[in-house]
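For the sake of clarity, the format in which proteins appear in this thesis is described at this point. The record quoted next illustrates the convention:

___
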Amino acid sequence: MSARDDLQRTLADIAARDGGLKSFVAVHDTAGAQRELDRALAHRGALQGLAVGVKDIFDTAALPSQYGSALFAGHQPRLDAAIVQAVRRAGGVVVGKTATTEFAFLNPAPTLNPNAAGRTPGGSSAGSAASVAAGLVPLGIGTQTGGSVIRPASYCGVVGFKPTFGALPTPGLKPFSWSLDTVGLFTQRVTDMARWASALSGRTWTSQGAKPVVGIAWSYPFGELTPSARLALETARDKLRAAGVTVKDVDLPAWVADVHKAHDAVQGWEAVRALRDEFEFHADQLSAVLRDYLRDAQEVDDRAYEQGQATAAAGRGKLQQLFDGIDVLLAPSAPDEPPAGYGSTGASTFNRAWTLLHVPCVSVPGAKGVNGFPMGVQVVAPVGEDALCLRAAALLQASFGH
């Protein structure tokens, strides 16, 4: 089947199935998609002709960019975001924009969960995770400021990759918290993730090596393990050991709790400034949850912000302590199975510290919670060790037989 046939099949599939899923908010018509394909075929990259969904928090010159907000209804940027340009340079075809929560915060998107009926797909990258989970596109682009890649990947049962901070470009992303906002990706398989992420980043994240030594933390200063989270970690431990991997129990150092807490101050201070105009001049067009958050976050003063950033910097300086004796750490991707209903996107309890530390993380599907719904297992590696993180994640996915 030719690339043009593949593209037509993808568009037809989205038209036929996404009405009930609501993972896309804008899709190219046939002519627009063909233009995208022509541009893609002019490049000979690893994504040659691959259909890609891009979270509607990124600017796109050929499709509206509304950031999940009524305030920006019909907004049409003149330039593409840097990650969109990277997709095209690698030969990928942007077929549409995927649903996001309002400004990538908490107000839920309309997207449903294809692998957990009646339960949230998570946020804020709900559309990208769900579209990949449903098989509408093989690659989705998202962002994470708290847990917006790892958590929806867990809830939807797909691979979610949050690289080292800054490894994928952010220009053209509508910012919420500029020292936290991280471009991330969704796929079905880690092996595909490694190849495609390498192409988008210009780095080599497909290296081979010895089996990593894996640590698992069973106690967390910022949240107790639920039965489903414990079951997922136990499943991962047993599968890895059966595959000949050394797995050790580890204790998290106390300073990880300080980093977790500092995330709130850093995000709040930056969000107030990133959305200053929207809050000051268009508050009536914001959701109540965002209005209340921005109002309360104004109480975060410069000193608290500076202390938060200092705590984060100190934590990054102690990462060797965190990974002493192990290569990667396993932790829950989410506190529990996807919550029932669509009024909440879940909690980023097990993501915020890693996001502020700027370390790479991969949510690996294959485990289940006590009720049989998806539970991702999060692989965490030191800053800059994205290849190691992906290699360990691929080993874990293979051990799951997923």
Observations:
- Residues 255-274 form the longest helix (20 residues).
- The longest strand covers residues 361-368.
- The radius of gyration is 20 Å.
